[in-house]
Amino acid sequence: MARQQRLICASRDLVDGGDGTRFEMNDQQGRAPAFVIRHDGEVYAYLNRCGHVSVEMDWQPGRFRDMSGLYLICAVHGALYDPATGHCICGPCNGKGLTPLEVVEHDGEVFLMEG
Fold it and tell me: Is the whole-model pTM more than 0.90?
């Protein structure tokens, strides 16, 4: 089966170190919340589920970063994640990281790879 690209947002919507863009995708349980961010010039996407307990992480829609802007944070548990890898670096996640999603950026747009 051929992989498809699904548009998430325009590249200009993702400011390096800024807010993320929320979107939904299909997974084994049905519809799943997800988000995409820009970090050090690259785009990264993850399921919007804390590695500790499966809750959405943003404290306001699209707000996934801690006060320093260096890490992704779960607003419920305070777990900190590396924006480039999704690995848990501090908090109650006990080494469980975020679930990464494959995204590509071209022609001024960001796409989720599906299939």
Answer: yes
